[in-house]
Specification:
heterodimer, A: about 150 residues, alpha+beta, Cytidine Deaminase, domain 2, 2 domains, six-stranded mixed sheet, about 10% helix, B: about 90 residues, Ubiquitin-like (UB roll), five-stranded mixed sheet, two-stranded antiparallel ribbon, 2 helices, 8 strands, about 20% helix
Chain lengths: ~150, ~90
């Protein structure tokens, strides 16, 4: 996640997140469930599908930290690594996109030499791709903030 | 009354308010009370009798997935925090 000042639309502070889905015991993972009769773990997604979820305790701590700094999530990104997958929001990406002000960025790494980098807005289940503007300084960016450009 | 912290995406239901109050002894009752005062909010939190899988609800900093889900107890003085999970695949 990359946070920025609330309302600024500027991603400024990088926040790495631990994927709790690496722990198969993490409750509520959509890719596994337990059969109530046999107690057996059943995979719901096909082999090779991947899923990530930020640990919920860490999510709360991050939320408190960001709120204290008057920040909000500006960019939420992850990678699509499978050879069959595009750098485009999957159904599960759309279902879980619940930060209305965030830009959802996907890095496609199926090509080991050239990655894809694409950004999307996801609102009420509707995906809209947007251009990514790479700038050296936000002084020259159209970030939507009305304040004076940075002096440093 | 418990204090409920509302995430950005649900503030359209609360007139923009970031925190509201609600009464109830369980998460289910809190959601029901929220819905009575902020119509439509329950539908964003519960599907088919289960909590939305990508919404985290915390009662006093404890994710209710680990403490009873919809039946997790809520005290008079509890703080309830609703947050979107960060997830995907």
């Amino acid at each position: 996640m990359v946070a920025g000042p609330e309302g600024s639309d500027r991603p400024e502070r990088f926040l790495p997140m631990r994927n709790a889905a690496a722990d198969p015991e993490y409750p509520g993972l959509p890719n596994t469930r337990t059969d109530p009769e046999t107690g057996e773990r059943i995979e719901e997604l096909r082999f090779g599908d991947t899923f990530f979820v930020f640990d919920s305790k860490e999510r709360l701590a991050l939320h408190r930290d960001m709120t204290g700094r008057d920040e909000e999530p500006v960019v939420i990104y992850h990678s699509h690594t499978q050879t069959y997958s595009e750098a485009y929001p999957s159904a599960i990406d759309v279902e879980s996109a619940l930060e209305p002000n965030a830009h959802y960025v996907i890095v496609g790494t199926k090509d080991p030499v050239r990655h894809e980098l694409r950004s999307f807005r996801i609102l009420d289940g509707v995906v809209t791709e947007e251009e990514i503007d790479v700038v050296e300084s936000y002084m020259f960016a159209h970030t939507g903030a009305d304040d004076v450009p940075d002096k440093d | 009354m418990a204090t409920v912290s509302i995430p950005t995406i649900l503030r359209t239901h609360t007139g923009g308010e970031k925190t509201v109050e609600a009464k109830g002894a369980t998460v289910a009752e809190i959601i029901s009370d929220l819905d009575a005062n902020h119509s439509g909010i329950a539908g964003r939190l519960v599907n088919d009798g289960k909590l939305h899988r990508f919404v985290n609800i915390y009662v006093d900093d404890e994710d209710v997935r680990f403490s009873g889900g919809l039946e997790a107890p809520v005290k008079e003085s509890s703080t309830v925090t609703i947050l979107p999970a960060v997830a995907g695949g």
